[in-house]
C-alpha cells in the first residue's frame, strides 16, 4: 500500500511538481512504498518548497498515511496535474479544491 504525508490539522496531502521515469514534470502527490521516516518527510517538504517558517511547515504537523492503490490514483486524478489544486484526506475520503 502506498504512503503519503498528510497535514494533521487540515488533511492536506503533500503534493508538488516531480519528475517521472521519463524525466517529464508532473504535479502529483508524493508517494512512498513504505511509511516514510522523519528524514524522508523533511526532505519531501523541502522538495515541495515548504520551509519551517511557512504555515504547516513544521515536520511535527505532518504524519504518514497509508492509502489504497485506488485512493492514491484518485488523489492524482483529482489534482489534474494542476499546481493550483489541493487534495485532502478527510473522513476517509479524498477531496480536492
Description:
- This protein has 97 residues and is α+β, with helices and mostly antiparallel strands.
- The longest helix has 11 residues, at 69-79.
- It is 22% helix and 29% strand.
- It contains 2 helices and 6 strands.
- A two-stranded antiparallel sheet has the order 1-4. A two-stranded antiparallel ribbon has the order 2-3. The chain has a two-stranded antiparallel ribbon with strand order 5-6.
- It has helices at residues 38-47, 69-79, and strands spanning 3-7, 15-19, 25-29, 62-66, 87-90, 93-96.
- The chain starts with a strand and ends with a strand.
- It has one domain (3-96).
Detail the topology: elements first, then pairings.
Layout: E1 3-7, E2 15-19, E3 25-29, H1 38-47, E4 62-66, H2 69-79, E5 87-90, E6 93-96
Antiparallel strand pairs: 1-4, 2-3, 5-6
Overview in brief:
The protein is of the alpha+beta class and 97 residues long. It has helices at residues 38-47, 69-79, and strands at residues 3-7, 15-19, 25-29, 62-66, 87-90, 93-96.
Amino acid at each position: 500500500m502506498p504512503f503519503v504525508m498528510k497535514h494533521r490539522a487540515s488533511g492536506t496531502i503533500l503534493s508538488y511538481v516531480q519528475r517521472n521515469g521519463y524525466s517529464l514534470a508532473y504535479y502529483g502527490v508524493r508517494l512512498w512504498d513504505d511509511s516514510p521516516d522523519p528524514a524522508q518527510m523533511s526532505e519531501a517538504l523541502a522538495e515541495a518548497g515548504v520551509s519551517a517558517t511557512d504555515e504547516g511547515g513544521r515536520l511535527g504537523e505532518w504524519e504518514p498515511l497509508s492509502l489504497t492503490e485506488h485512493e492514491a490514483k484518485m488523489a492524482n486524478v483529482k489534482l489534474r496535474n494542476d499546481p493550483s489544486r489541493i487534495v485532502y484526506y478527510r473522513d476517509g475520503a479524498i477531496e480536492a479544491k
